[in-house]
């Protein structure tokens, strides 16, 4: 490892610590879209851009954006970056790692006066998490020309509309829907994995092949509440034992194929007394897979088996699909380029799908896109315990740098 | 069926309706131990006793008690009755049926001036449900000489001690622990089944063989919360899927033997979000069986399998036995006597265990004891929907009457 105190990886880690002070809540990191903390963070990002001679701007949706010209002014741009909003009580790396790594890449080029065949654009999206308003990914949606004007009327928990919040931030709400990045040849995002795969395989980085599509269900089972002592087993219509059978069926189906995952994250039981047979159980299912057809087959199988189990156990089933999002297959050229870059810096190039959603899946609607993951401790994210090592940060940054230097725009 | 408007069964049903007006809550039946509604109900019971020439009294614990002499004054007594306290938002029959049926039996004898070889004592226990204070079955415990003086210091939700409540009710708290019924040859309780067995078999009444013993557990499972999209199935420590496997194991073990029941009535999942793998699951187990050895074998098996499942799934298990109560085997002579009585009135005599606890299991410590069940609609109890038919009430009453007339005290 590079022990130089001023190595780009170490400097990046120090900046991530410094950047984490921009928070809407004392004592923990919470940085909501268009909040005071977001404004301070955006201004700091702009200031850091200026330090290296870059004229950064804040677009109509609150994204910070800057361009480092290539050898020829007006060349197509490779865009790199991520988001700088956070969940409540967040870690320091989700989003911020990619946004500040993009800045570090350009800093490295600028320091040496190095110009590439392409321009490099960097971005710090203002909203990915969707914590403040009901919608998510506002920043990349706006940049990709996919912002729905109706979103302006959404309100936060204090009754402030997105329109008002944009105005207070100094943005022009009516211009958001007409934003669209121009002449962007590709988008690449560095991000923490938010899962345990790289750690389990002892790998510092991974190349994302696809961002999983997702289907969510809400299921309600209605059986018959009864006295736990007075009702023989064969006369029961127990909503919870039915749910338990369904949960194990869902788990078994997800285990039957690589890259498919399914989770029952919520389960509530009524009436919920120690001596009463559950009359009702409500639970959620979240299913994800990198290929839509794979996910759809699993959804169909689970739908059928839910019905069969409910019938066999004589409980009523109400099952509603509440959310459906297609997978984004990362651009094969970007995947190949990232793989080659990781191998050139002497690291194993593990390909893996992303279970979580990212700005990349939106930017993929605008241009070829891809992602590079950095291992995070225990796979923990959305939590102050979120952690990466300096060494992994160094490797992630080096791989991104290598990719940027080697990138050729399609002709 | 007896269509006479004044038939004992019809009169009993009418009285149960009338009695249900004594409630601590407007619009629903809630009659807590030593409450105003309890006082009114007890006074009404005393008044009805007086109407048939019986000198009823209220004992130191709030039980209403009266004696109908036999041919010889001072003869051993057969005691019949049940409790007149209720759960919150109760039905009209749990407890009250047996208490008012006892009164109806004596009324029937008194009306005809009929004297038996034995005396008949009737009782309306003041607390069986244990809703107001932490302990249950205060009335029968006191009568059986099993009241623990320390119970007097228990407080209700308003901070009123049982001692104060007894004093306010007009009772003598210090005398409760020295109460004990004298010269009681046997105790028999008529009660609704509170389960679905008789209805499923289309039978109006059943004879209880045993009151099930019970073991309760609280289990906590600690796995690892994680991102529902980003954590592959093989790297999960899902507390809920572990709980689901345990729930089905418990169900299968209970189904493997007659008369054994097991219920997981409560289950809570943390953090309980649609897109987060459950890191913690907490649930209760309630196990009951008419034979202690049978229950103990099942408890041991389940204990072992809980540990095995937790180990195989790499989740931490904390399992605590929170409650343990031995079974009460009903007195064989009483069971035989009730069976013969039911057959004499021309009905099938179904023997079955009681899954719920009853005053009979306490009175069984004082004297031979047994129970007669009346079918209830859907097995529903502890609920305003609690319901029995006039016909079944008639049959239950007739069987009890027949038993009382045929009862011979052991010599």
How does the major sheet of chain A shape up? 9 strands, mixed
Secondary-structure element string of chain A: HHEEEHEHHHEHEEEHEEEEHEEHEHEH
How many DSSP helices of chain A?
Answer: 12
Mean pLDDT of chain A: 95
Question: Can you summarize this structure?
Answer:
2 copies of one chain form a homodimer. With 411 residues, the first copy, chain A, is α+β, with helices and mostly antiparallel strands.
Structure description:
The structure is a homodimer of 411-residue chains. Chain A has 411 residues and is of the alpha+beta class. Chain A has 2 domains: 8-212 and 327-406, 3-Layer(aba) Sandwich (Aminopeptidase); 214-325, Alpha-Beta Plaits, CATH 3.30.70.360. Helices cover 34% and strands 22% of the residues of chain A. In chain A, strands 1, 2, 3, 4, 5, 6, 14, 15 and 16 form a 9-stranded mixed beta sheet that branches. In chain A, strands 7, 9, 10, 12 and 13 form a 5-stranded antiparallel beta sheet that branches. Chain A has a two-stranded antiparallel sheet with strand order 8-11. In chain A, helix 3 (96-111) links the parallel strand 3 (77-83) and strand 4. The longest helix of chain A has 21 residues, at 292-312. Chain A starts with 7 loop residues before the first helix and ends in a 5-residue tail after the last helix. The model of chain A has no long low-confidence stretch (mean pLDDT 95). At the A-B interface, strand 8, helix 8, strand 9, strand 11 and strand 12 of A face strand 8, helix 8, strand 9, strand 11 and strand 12 of B.
